[in-house]
Specification:
The protein has two helices and nine strands; from the N terminus they run E-E-H-E-E-E-H-E-E-E-E. The chain has helices spanning about 20-25, 60-65, and strands spanning about 1-5, 10, 25-30, 45, 50, 70, 75, 80-85, 90. The protein is about 15% helix and about 25% strand. It has one domain (about 1-85): Ubiquitin-like (UB roll) (Roll), CATH 3.10.20. With about 100 residues, it is of the alpha+beta class. The longest helix is centred in the N-terminal third of the chain and has 7 residues, at about 20-25. Strands 2-1-8-4-6 form a five-stranded mixed beta sheet.
Length: about 100
Amino acid sequence: MTLEPQQWTFTAGPDESLFQAARRAGIRLPSICRNGTCRTCYSRMESGSVRYLVEWPGLSAREKEEGFILPCVAVATAPIVMVNPHAEKTEGASG
């Protein structure tokens, strides 16, 4: 997993949401609901693919086609390059 524009990289487990993986790596993505409805974590996927932990996340079909994802309920199925300029490192995180 690569997060742009920061160029931070981290790994995600096979059943771990991108949000959870980022948090484990010391990266804070914007979030409120963590269930795919509030869209606070709305991000653009430049490359890769995901599957969702919920039947219909809060994205339109067009948004999905344009590469937008909700990391709180998205699980990587291929290496991901994701853009979220609002991500921050938590205190003590490195990378």
